[in-house]
Amino acid sequence: MAENIDDDSDYRIKEGDYVVLKRGDIYKAVQIQPKKKVIFEKQWFFLDKAVGHLYRTTFEIASGALQPQKSKESEGSTDAKEVGTDNRNIVDDGKSQKLTRDDIEALKEQGLKGQEIIQQLIENSSTFGDKTKYAQDKYIKKKKKKYENTVTILKPSCRILAMMYHGREPGKICHLRYDTLGQMLTLGNIHAGSKVLVFETCAGLVLGAVMERMGGYGSVIQMYPGGEPVRAGVESFGFPTHFHDTLHDFPICRVNALLAGTLDTSAKDPRAAGDLKPPVIAAEKEKSQPEVEQQSNPEEQSMETNSATDGVRDQETEEREKRREARAQEKKVKLEEKRKKLAAAAALLEDKNADGLVIASRFHPCPVLMGLLRFLAPSRPFVVYSQYKEPLIECFTKLKEQGGAVDIRLTDTWVRHYQVLPNRTHPLLLMSGGGGYLLSGTTVAVDRSKPAGSRRAEEPAPKRQKLTDSEG
Amino acid sequence: MSFVEYSDCIKDGDVAIIHLGHESTMPVKVQQGAQTQTRYGVIRHSSDLIGQRYGSKVTCSKGGWVHVLHPTPELWTVSLPHRTQILYTTDISTITMMLELKPGSVVCESGTGSGSLSHAILRTIAPTGHLHTVEFHQQRAEKVAEEFKEHRVDHLVTVRNQDVCKDGFGVTGVADAVFLDIPSPWEAVKHAKAAMKRHGGRACSFSPCIEQVQRTCEALADQGFQEISTLEVLLRVHDVRTVSLPLPDFGTDPFSPPAEPNSTEKTAPTSAPNPASFTLKTTTPPREIPGHTGYLTFATKPRT
User: Which of A72, A205, A386, B304 is the most exposed place for a label (fewest CB within 10 A)?
Assistant: First the structure.
């Protein structure tokens, strides 16, 4: 079992790593950069000292620096000596706490640790001893949340980032709740080796989640609206570089052109051309770009010969020209790269044999679904998220009309968290009001022939048999 | 075909899912010369299935038709032969995400039961992960191992026929995640810990009763597990339909806007009963839904 030999290097925090800070139920994604100030939960600090420590280490914050927490202060450290039975004699006169706000501030200024401040608060509370054990626990828990200045550094994952986005910036991810995202990945049968289309405006969270499930095997094509694909959320996952080789993007505004182009070339052998054909198509579509390149090439050559013949030349101009040339070159390379990437994405799309489709955007889902469903092979799942139910009702109706899909379901999920403590187990008082809605289904071949084929006549009359006869 | 890899056409030996409509499906082992009876008539494997594309419409002998689908863990979940109570896709999705499963994950599971969750795990951890699953019921263990082979995922899974509460998972220090669906999960928590990697991982226990949850949470805390969190996920299905709400007829309205004597528009309201109605597309909930499947308790094993 080679796995048993623990190589810690994989689990240590490195400079440049994308990590997630955690305190209580609050998360924040950051990158480990030297001398970079981070503000988290009203505290600022530098992450430099976290480098080299293991993931999941809890740090204490002391004047901007992180120190790994030595021993975990035991949860119920204050084994209360006195405990009350009920609150019949506890009067809320607002005077139970002897420490004033200024006193507490002073304690903080002195650089007292959270644990010590809490101890002071308990000692100066006249009612603490009268509280029940449960009320005491609750009091300590509440104060801990306020005064303990610790932060845990986690390795990012879909679970953590989905919970983070839902907690911090639900508006950026169309209020997609983490459990709904979990449903999407499963209903979409997202797994290694498949070819998945993703259209999302969820900051890249959905895209990242799909990539995590694919583990760098297969391909993901991000269909994006506007000028550039949004991928901030993908970065936070901190994927190894080879994951990005499987990620393609294609502007949604070119979908119609692609479909039209495919129709033109579909007469040729679709398989053999594999590598050769797509760039040609892309070149056709982007006529202007190759032209520019062709023009610039000879120009460049002539410039080179010029500089070679001119023996004496002002060095400055030469250098400036060189720089300009380099920049032009760089731009050209970038353009060429972009064109190649587009061609590669087009090549993946035009076979219309994608294995899955995931949509989660602020756009009306109906046209998106109808447009992108055409790229899917038959017998493949698709899943559409919307914050609202009504547009999905429309999708449902349209799909039923149009055919080409079975098992179409409109669903949503409820998630309920529980407090589980001895004698205090109950659902949490607050729950999420809604995590959005999903429309899911499976594509099937669209048949043009009428059902009830001619074969019917040839079949002998079947005997009535149980459904399960042929099984097993 | 394989449960972890799509293919385009149906081949001899595949497992295909026959979709009969209305959420009714049945799995079929495709065999040259075999026949399958459906309520729409017979399907002849050699001519109707083998060589056809997955997703095709197949016309049956009685003129009805069905769709033949590529197997997925989700379709398997709704069509598999039950040998035990099984986990459904809603819980499975949550478990997969909260256990942070992905390609390469090593997972321990017990009990295997009917293999509903196992197939979903295998799909997610392929091609480099591994599932160690423990089922103490010998017949079930054998049956599920057979299914894994038929579904061409046996290279990704080891089935062990032993008691997880007594004998553990049969592996130590290898798992990224552990899942327990047994009557007394608290008795297996220490084995779960032992099965997990030294640097830590995630654990989940599924229990229908809150008393089981209590004991499990206690055991998890005792074994040093952190981030213990219990939740429940419920699926709501919305049936899309067009409804029409009849509009009431109030009779002649004496208070209606200035009744001008020479206005012709408001005449003859009693000539015919007004069948006016308002039509809209909406959704209704099914009459009955599963209100409880089980509590899911998650925890993180820290580095030890």
Answer: A72
